[in-house]
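Marked as duplicate of an earlier ticket. Keeping the data here for the record.
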Amino acid sequence: MNITPPATAQRLLTNKASLNETRIEDFSLRPAMGEIVLKIDRVALTTNNITYAAFGDAMHYWDFFPTGDANWGHMPAWGFADVVTSEVAGVEVGERFYGYFPLATQILMRPERVTPRGFYDASEHRRTLTSAYNQYTRCSQDEVYSQANENYQMLVRPLFLTSFMCADFLQDAEFFGAKQIVVSSASSKTAYGTAFCLDGHGIKLIALTSTGNKSFVEQLGCYQQAITYDELTKIDTCLPTLYLDFSGDEALRAKVHQHFGNTLVYDCFAGSAQNTQFLRDTALPGPEPKFYFAPVQIRKRNADWGPAVVTARYNAAELDFIHRVSAPDTSGAPWMRIKEHRGFAAAQILIDDLHAGRIDPALGHVVILVSPEHAQ
C-alpha cells in the first residue's frame, strides 16, 4: 500500500552567484501518473559538490533539479532515498535507491528502463542530460552495497569513479612516457583515490599539498613523497614528469611548468572546486594542459571491455578502497572518519566550510536530511 507523501517538502537552495549562500524553503509535491516519490534520507557533501555548483551552468549540473528560480539552484549530491509512493511497475514502496539527488526531503521522478538493477529518471528536463547521473541503483541488487557502509559508499563512489577512471586513463596512455606524477591537492579524496589505484604500477607518485595537510598525506601510504607547495622546486627535474592537477590553481600550474620545463610531458587537469574558468590559455611553456573527463574514459572502456567487465572491475576496486579508507591504520585511525550532520541548518554551515576550504581531510561529511516532521 502506498504511503501518501506530505503536502509540502523542504529543500536547500544555493545562490548561483555566491555558492556559500544558501536558503531553506518549503515546496509542494504534486505527483502525476507514472511518477514516484522518494524520501531522501542522507547525502554526502564534499568539495566535489562545490565543484558541481561551480560548473553548474557550464556543465548543466543546475539543470538536473530545476527550482523555477534562475538565480537559485539545487546543489546536487549523491546519497540514498526510499520510495514512499509508486504506481510504476517494478518500483515498489519501501525500496531503497542510491543515486544523484537534490538537497531536499523528497523528489518526484519518472522511472523508465526499469530493471532488477534499478531505473533511469526520464523526467522531461533530464532527457538531454548526461545519462550516468540519471541512473538510480536498487540497493538490494548492488553488489557493493551494505547498510553498515552506506556513509562510506556515498562518500567514496562518486569521487572514486573519477579516481578509478583517471588512473585507468593514465595507465592506458602509458603515463605519456612519464616516470613520476606530481599530484596537486593531494589530500583531496579524489586525488588520493587516484593514487591508491596507481600505487604499485611502476610510477613514482609525488604529493603536492599544504603544510597543514602534509602529515595526513604522508600517512596515507600511497604517495612515495610528500612536498608542500613552497617546496615545489625540490622535486627532481631529471625524470619525465606528468602533472595531475586537482587544484585548478593557475599560479601553481605556472610554477610547475616553469620548474619542469621540457621534462614535463603531460598536464592533466582533473577538475577543481575553485577554478570555474576551465583551462584558460596562459601561454605556459611545455605541453598544453588537457581536461580529463571521466565519462569519456568510461565510454572507451565500455567499448574495449564491455559494460559488465567495467562494472566488475570498478566494483572490486571500490570495495578495496572502502575497506582501506574505513580500516584503522597503525595509529588506530582510519583514513576517513565519518561525521554526520542533521538537517538543513547544519548543511548550510557545512557548505560554507567546504566552500572556504575549512575541512579536515580525514573527515567525511554526511547530512541526514529527513527531519522528524517529514519522516514517514
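See parent ticket for discussion. Residues 161 and 314 are 8 Å apart (CA to CA).
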